[in-house]
Structure formats: structure tokens, C-alpha cells
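Lab channel / #folding
Pinned by the channel admin:
"Please post every new chain as: sequence first, then the C-alpha cells as a reply. Keep commentary short and put observations after the output so the thread stays searchable."

First post following the new format, from NK:
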Amino acid sequence: ATTKDSVRTWIITAPTLEDTLRVLTEKGITRVMVEAGQTLNTAFINIGLIDRLYWFRAPFDIGSEGLPAFS
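Reply from TO:
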């Protein structure tokens, strides 16, 4: 169970996604859940960092100008 006292927040200003994940690893974080848009989803896939993908899609489109999940 997570308590208010166990939540930590960091501001990471690493220049690349790989560097950001390296910093998290150094802090003991070895797994992340990514709930993102097209750009970040595609970046994780392109650098080979997805080992499991769960796809949830609403039964309807929200707005007429939506973007695809991946580019």
C-alpha cells in the first residue's frame, strides 16, 4: 500500500529519454508505466523499451481532430 509519506517526486532534466530512465534506475526505479500520447509512445517503442503493452480504447472517439496513438 502507498501512503502519503512514501510518495516521492523528482524533477529530472536529462537531455534524452534514455538519460531520464538511467537517472530513475540510479534512484532504484526499474519499472515505469507510460500513459502518454503519440510522441512519447512512439519514442519508447523506437528505442526498444517496451516489454509489455496494454491497449485500452474507448468505445467512441473523443473529438474530431484526434491523433493516432503511434506515429
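NK: The mean pLDDT is 83.
TO: also worth noting, The two ends are 36 Å apart (CA to CA).
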